[in-house]
Structures are given as C-alpha cells and as structure tokens.
Amino acid sequence: MDTQLLEGTVNAIVAPGKGILAADESTPTMGSRLSQVGAENTENNRRDFRELLFTTEGMEENVSGVILFDETLRQQSADAGTLTDNLIKKGVIPGIKVDKGAKNLANSSNEKITEGLDGLRDRLNEYFDLGARFDKWRAVITIGERIPTDYCIDANAHALARYSALSQEAGLVPIVEPEVLMTGNHSIETCYEVTKKTLNSTFTELQAQGVHLPGILLKPNMVISGLDCPTQAGPDEVAEQTIKCFTECVPSDVNGIVFLSGGQTSIEATDHLSRMNSMGPHPWELSFSYGRALQHDPLMTWNGSNENKGIAQETFLKRAKLNGLARYGNYNTDME
C-alpha cells in the first residue's frame, strides 16, 4: 500500500474550495435523467451531456474530482481523445464507481446489500491503468418499520471495508459511502441514531481490515428528516445534528468527508454544507460529492440540445462556485 499516494490524492480532492462532481449514474439512471428533458437514452446523448460538464471552462477551480461510470471512463469525446483526457488536462482527478448495485439482502425484509466484490481486484487494477485514482462503493440503509437491522448494517459495513482494502492495495482512494436514505417519514432524531449506528459499524470494520483511514474519503448522508416527515428540521438543526453525530463517530484520522446530497434540492445541499463549515474548525475537511445538486440545473438548461451548451455550462459553473463558497461557510441563499 502506497500511503503517500493515497493521502496525496485525498488532500488534492478536498483542497480548499473544492469538491467532487458525482457523474457516475448507471445507464438506466442516466436514462431517467435524460427523459426529464425529452432526450433519448443513447450513448451519444449520455456523452454529450457529460462532456458539456467536463469541458466547462473554470470548473476546475471548484471541482477537484469526478466520479465516472465504466462507460464514461472509456468513452471517446465528440472531438478527440477521451472524456477522461478532458478532466486530466484541467487537473481534475478521475474516479470510478465500482460496485454492482444494491440487491435484496438474503433473509431480510426490505433491506439491501451492495454487490460487486467478485473479481474486484482485477477490475481495480484495470481502472488504475485507465487513469482513475479514486473509486466509490455505495451501501444503502433504509429506515422503516423494524429496519434497519443490525444484520443489514453490519453486512454492508463489512463489504465497504473489503472494497476499501482492495482499493488501497491497487493505489485507489476508496470513497466509503454508507447512505442512510431520506426516504420515509422518520424524524431527524431517528436519522441521527441510525446514522450513528451505521458509522460506528463501518469504522469498526474498516479498522479491523487494516484500512488506512487517512487514505479514504467518507461520503455520508447528512442527519436530516425523512422526506415524508410532517415536521421538517430546519437548516441550522441539520448542520448541528450532523456535526454532533460525526464528532462522536468519525475518527480524526479521516482527512475528508464529502457529503452526498441525497433527496435534497440543490439549494438545500449547498446551504447545509455552508452552515456546517461555518461551525468549524473541524477535525476533517467538509466537502461535497454531489450528483443531482450539481447536475440538475445545467441538465434543465441544456434541455437535450447542444445549442444550449454555453448557457448550460454557465449554470453548472455557478453551482460549482456556490458549493466552493460553502466549503468556507461563505454561502447564503441570497446568492441564488
């Protein structure tokens, strides 16, 4: 394990004012995104929208890394070279989604386990050769009646740790993503307890399997009310409860936390991140690894037509800059 390589990648990704664009949607998920603007789910359309984002002038000022899907890592640009080349030329680090998705957990009702460990070592070595320097594995934890079970949490934590150890062996920084979903009517207090249990189990497994904690990035949910909860916690409470939970659970050896946006709007995700950073200093860098919260606005502006490329890039650049300000705690909603 090259710990200097791993830590160098981590520090570059969570450099001041910077974070990650998550553009790793699977082909079906990308189809759902494209359908919102009436675009067909073709390889060219998937390429065109992603290339629009990757070639935005100035995006590298606030985007340090991009998580790619397997197709995208290998894909040729419309002009010349690969999409990955566009990123590397800007000094943006390519990453790759390596899990095979969440499937039904055996002997457990309404719970999921993420698959993809079989053959992972060989795939990781190939991805490193293709230019990736970090990767991502997402575990899904659902809150509902009598769930999550300890069985579900521990099984996913074990898989996250196995993936992380293999990634570090291959020279890739693992993004450890134990996501407690916003789906449901649970309170922020319930989210707090489930997130705490999930993080504790995850770090127990990471340490048991010899994972080098300064060489990982944690990609967690924020502590937040369920989408259908009748009483929604305000932004200050979300920030306070998230920091409290992470102070209790996340070792200071972890250099970077890159939050997912989950079911939040673009504005909510940016606002919550900014409020958390304004409460600092913290033992870890608090950054972003946003998908929809960075992509939704430019997707709507692009509207399936490359004639709108310029204005869509301006929209993307604005969202990137606002999240860059949130890294310092300097964002407010009046900037929208």
UniProtKB/TrEMBL annotation:
What is the organism of origin for this protein?
A: Marine Group III euryarchaeote CG-Bathy1
Name the domain of life: Archaea
Under Pfam families, the record lists: Glycolytic (PF00274)
- Might you name a Gene Ontology BP term for this protein? glycolytic process
Classification via SUPFAM superfamilies: Aldolase
Its annotated pathway reads: Carbohydrate degradation; glycolysis; D-glyceraldehyde 3-phosphate and glycerone phosphate from D-glucose: step 4/4
Per its record, the protein catalyses: beta-D-fructose 1,6-bisphosphate = D-glyceraldehyde 3-phosphate + dihydroxyacetone phosphate
Q: What is its EC number?
A: 4.1.2.13
Q: Return the protein name.
A: fructose-bisphosphate aldolase
State the UniProt keywords alphabetically.
Answer: Glycolysis, Lyase
